[in-house]
Amino acid sequence: MSSEYIASLGDRILVTGSNGFIGSKVVEKLLEYGFANLRCFVRPSSHLPRLKEVLDRLPAGRNVELIIGDLLSRDDCRKAAEGVSIIYHLAAGMEKSFAGAFMNSALATRNLMDAFLQFGEAKRFVNISSFAVYSNLGLRRGALLDENCPLEDAPQKRFDAYGFGKLKQEELVREYGGKYKLPYVILRPGYVFGPGKTELNGRVGINTFGFFIQVDGSHLLPLTFVDNCAEAIVLAGLKAGIDGEVFNVVDDELLTSRQFLRLYKKRVNRFSARIPYSIAYALCLLWEKYSNSSKGQLPPVFNRRRCAAEWKGNRYSNLKLRERLGWKPRVPMDQAMAAFLGQFTHDGAGDTSLKR
Amino acid sequence: MLKIAIVGCGKIADQHVHAIHRIPDCRIVGLCDRELLMAKQLGERAGVAECFSDLQEMLHATRPEVVHITTPPQGHFSLARQCLEDGCHVYLEKPFTVTADEAESLIQLAQARDLKMTAGHNYQFTLEMLEMRRMVEGGFLGGKPIHLESYWSYDLGDISYVGPVLGNRNHWVRQLPGQLFHNIISHGIAKLAEFLDDELTEITATAHQSQRLQTLGADDVLDELRVLIRDEGGTTAFFCFSTQIKGVNQLRIYGPANSMVADIITGSLVRNKGRSYKSYLTYFVPPLNIAREHFRNARVNVTNFLRQRLYQDFGMKELIERFYNGIREGGEPPIPYREIILTARIMDEIFAQIYPANRAHESAREPIASTF
């Protein structure tokens, strides 16, 4: 075990959202690193195919403790956080409503942090956030979007409940860091992809109108392969001297949206049309104006903030991640894409997004 | 300017805020939630600065004239009573209360204090339902309704709601006497209650669990419900709640002369005239008449959309506005109290029949024929 780590192999570690797409990989990586005293928190409603697969496959998985509960329950949070040194908090509110997203992101995080401070042996709280918290309205196309980029100041105008929940969650984590000396690190992964996730991200295009509209295509996607992302998360919980830091998580050799979709369509038969960014921006502006003037007759799902955030096109960097965590993407982009596309057959089977 | 407050800042509160913002001469003065953070997150988005975690504190600090209660139903009775006792009119989300006795008690209190209440049966006020009501009042049916059918489908595909409910026995929905049904069916039952007499002679309910739900777990949750009702005047009604039938939220109303189908999902009202046609014309003319009805509905909906009269929460805005107008002008509340109580009574009886364990816990209950 590296002397640069704050935890020893016997430390109890909690992973929330451990049955999720990224969470199950984090559990896998922690077991591979040799941490045997793991506690996985899952929702009562969770079927656990991802987590079970990991725990069954790895010998150390037999010793993993499973806690079933709801992070909105303080009692469940206490059970989860008791005696824990590090929390990897990946559970997130994926609800479409702002209230639901806030409740399951911010409120759940507040409960978990309270329990961690009271019943845990708090060494590190790793808060998993998202690129959705950034606003690139003030950035030029092609400008660098890094950890210093401003955060979204009007998520309701962007009509992004998930981003709102994540912003509020981050605010609370920072507040707890300041007020209660919670040792925390925030990670903001970009577009996490890999086997087990079939839907195309909104940054590639829109799937709202019955067929796929690719917006622009020349913009880089902030891709991170799930295994690489999971390793960054694990390191963020272990590395000494990074309390209070924020890290973006993106891989090397990023693809443009057009490159990504081209590779995808080689594997999956799918019709798509492309519109340039300027047209998309103009249509979003019109939609936003009408939505405002009609008091929400059309909800503002398309608006300038979203248009900029998803399709404007920026450059991304993992420099801080490399320098401070010593992370590097173990799976190169070509192998990552091969693994991602390997889950599809040519008729689109495996792609649940095509079946809706 | 009517001063409004909202208690319970979860998902449905957002819809209330949007609807209230469409109504002139009213202002949200306070938000309250047991979790102050929930009140604040809504306040930040709705532009309301006064946020509280204690109802009494909010009532005293902001002095609202109307309180919208949008909490889980278990809190409705005590919160509404508190508001009424403090002199506020109350809009209570559906289901109005957990039991009919609670509903009656609240309404009596409101009447004693000269205050008004309404229930969140907003689907009674969609454009097609308003048109249907006008047609019934205008005599289109040719007399009192003979038979009613209310269909309410619910998509279990929305796992964000159903998942936590199924997986957690302590979820507030699971704690309701009617479980999953309790939180949803009042919309469909209220449509029947509007046209039924207060005296009911028969309610027969049967329920089961769909195969789909079996695959999702939750042994004791039922999700398919059928109910037959008859009132003293002989009007019969059928209610169907299904998680397996897709996209059908309808009220069908049959009179001695003609009938109508109000479809909430497509926002349409199809009027069927009971006229018969000679020979093969019966195969040609009625389908053309129905086609004309559908065409008329499409035209009306397009017109209403262009006039910005057709939007997602129209029913809620209409109900709230009528409620506020009733308060301002001293008129009747938009939903008659007898309809609210009848809806609650029908639901009580349905849940007692399909979850007999609940009935066993109740004190000696009169048979249905004499309770109504």
> Treating each run of at least 4 consecutive H or I residues as one helix, how many helices of chain B?
15
Number of contiguous helices of chain A: 13
Please indicate the percent range of residues of chain A in DSSP E strands (runs of 2 or more).
5-15%
SSE pattern of chain B = EHEHEHEHEHEHEHHHEHEEEEEHHHHH
- Order of adjacent strands in the largest pleated sheet of chain A: 3-2-1-4-5-7-12
Identify the strand order in the major beta sheet of chain B: 8-9-10-7-11-12-13
Characterization of this structure:
The complex is a heterodimer of chains A (356) and B (372). In chain A, 40% of the residues lie in helices and 15% in strands. Chain A is an alpha/beta fold. In chain A, the strands form four sheets. In chain A, strands 3-2-1-4-5-7-12 form a seven-stranded parallel sheet, sandwiched between helices. Chain A has a three-stranded mixed sheet with strand order 9-10-13. A two-stranded parallel sheet of chain A has the order 6-14. The C terminus of chain A is likely disordered. Chain B folds into two domains: 118 residues, NAD(P)-binding Rossmann-like Domain (Rossmann fold), CATH 3.40.50; 192 residues, Dihydrodipicolinate Reductase, domain 2 (2-Layer Sandwich). In chain B, β5, α5 and β6 form a beta-alpha-beta unit. The interface between A and B is medium-sized, with 24 and 27 residues.
List keywords for this structure.
heterodimer; A: 356 residues; alpha/beta; 13 helices; 14 strands; 15% strand; disordered C terminus; B: 372 residues; Rossmann fold; Dihydrodipicolinate Reductase, domain 2; 2 domains; seven-stranded mixed β-sheet; six-stranded parallel β-sheet; globular
What are the SSEs and their pairings?
The complex is a heterodimer of chains A (356) and B (372).
Chain A: E1 13-16, H1 23-33, E2 38-42, H2 49-57, E3 65-68, H3 74-81, E4 86-89, H4 98-119, E5 124-128, E6 144-145, H5 155-158, H6 161-180, E7 184-189, E8 191-193, E9 205-206, E10 212-215, E11 223-225, H7 226-238, E12 246-249, H8 257-267, E13 272-275, H9 277-293, H10 304-311, E14 315-316, H11 319-325, H12 333-341, H13 352-355
Parallel strand pairs in A: 1-2, 1-4, 2-3, 4-5, 5-7, 6-14, 7-12, 8-11, 10-13
Antiparallel strand pairs in A: 9-10
Chain B: E1 2-7, H1 11-21, E2 26-32, H2 36-46, E3 51-52, H3 55-62, E4 66-69, H4 76-85, E5 89-92, H5 100-112, E6 117-119, H6 127-137, E7 147-153, H7 159-167, H8 179-182, H9 186-193, E8 200-208, H10 211-216, E9 224-231, E10 236-242, E11 249-254, E12 258-263, E13 268-273, H11 281-306, H12 314-329, H13 337-354, H14 356-361, H15 368-371
Parallel strand pairs in B: 1-2, 1-4, 2-3, 4-5, 5-6, 7-10
Antiparallel strand pairs in B: 7-11, 8-9, 9-10, 11-12, 12-13
Helix pairs in contact in B: 1-12, 4-5, 5-13, 9-13
